[in-house]
Amino acid sequence: MRKTVRSVLVCGGLVVVASVAGAAGPRPVAQPFDGGVALGEPSYAIDWTIDGVITDHLVLGADHISDQQCANGGFGWPHDDCSATYHNITGPILLGVLGTHALTGNDSLMVGAVNGGVFDLTHEFDNGEARFGTFTPVFMLELAGRSDNSTFATFVATELFDELAAGTYGPDDFDTAGWIDSIEVGRSGAWINLRPWEFHTLIPTARALGSPGQDALFEQAVLDGLATLDNSDPNVVYSDVIGLAGAVRGLAFAARSTFPAISAPLDPGVDGIDTLAALTAYLAGLQNADGSWDWHSNLTAPGITDEDLQTTAYALLALLEVDALTAPSYVAATQAARDWLVSQQLPNGGFPEWPGGDENTEVEGEALTAIAAFDARIFVDGFESGDVSLWSAVMP
């Protein structure tokens, strides 16, 4: 599946930007934490065929993201704005481009991905030490593998995980537990539900690049985040479903099938659950009939504009990861989610934050990541392994 390409490093003119992208508009979009607190066109359906299922929508979307990339390798906020670029969103955006490259072998996409990685190599605290968003490590690990350039993985290993192991990361000399604490403090109040999502990709990345035991600390942070989930009031505490999806995916990464019963007094749906199977079933039960998930589980009268592409992308990724761990049991749910995401793609290749909403480059990258993951898992892996029944089960 992987294709080795020669890396193209564009280093000239890179700008160090330590700020964090922040949400705008009536509904929040989750951005990865990197030491600060980030607050806060009609859609149409595209028909697809067996021949086009793997490439058409992905290439269109990846090309659109490439058009949004700024000269320094980063991305702006909002859409079509390079007046400032933000390191905390590079990873979620370009993971979608890397997923597309894996299925298409389009080497022009790798140029943009590598430039984004170089941009993130320049992210520093005020004292000159390397600075990481919570999704930067998994992006750089994936980038290193797909570009055949170990620079990015080595940078994460030495500048983040080794520093955390030594208790010397950042100006505050965080160890792993201290960094986790700082993220939990940053993700409090309205954003407390993002805690499991923030930590979930750090589990496999720490296992690949970190010191012994660091992955277990991030796994425990995911479990602790489940205990603080709060679905009481969507006007006060946001995005509980993304937090849940992050927890399911992270625990699947950790192959953690059982755990002490979650005590989540502010989220009755999670409270008392002690198995990954039950947690996944709860997440799947929140799916809408059209394949989407709403941005919050406790809306008074949810409608189409409450359906959410970012939430659906992470829920789809979570169910795919559980099916990879166990016998496939969510094929229909993941198929419906993938089809709904594709149906929201705009003529220019972009995606709205929700049906009829504005475009958002991070959400576009996350939608591509989820679609590419489904296509790789089902249409490629299933077909190449000769599993004709699985292939047939997911075709329209």
Structural description of this entry:
The protein has helices at 56-68, 90-104, 107-121, 136-147, 151-166, 176-186, 195-200, 202-209, 214-227, 240-253, 276-285, 309-325, 331-343, 361-384, 388-394; strands spanning 293-294, 307-308. The protein has a domain at 61-174. A two-stranded antiparallel sheet has the order 1-2. It contains 15 helices and two strands. Helix content is 49%, strand content 1%.
SSE map:
Blueprint: H1 56-68, H2 90-104, H3 107-121, H4 136-147, H5 151-166, H6 176-186, H7 195-200, H8 202-209, H9 214-227, H10 240-253, H11 276-285, E1 293-294, E2 307-308, H12 309-325, H13 331-343, H14 361-384, H15 388-394
Antiparallel strand pairs: 1-2
Keywords summarizing the entry:
single chain; mainly alpha; 2 strands; 49% helix; 396 residues
How do you describe this structure in short?
The protein has about 400 residues and is mostly helical. Helix content is about 50%, strand content about 0%.
Largest sheet: 2 strands, antiparallel
Computed Rg: 19 Å
| Number of E strands | 2
The total of helices stands at: 15
Order of helices and strands: HHHHHHHHHHHEEHHHH
Class derived from helix and strand content: mainly alpha
Strand order of the largest sheet: 1-2
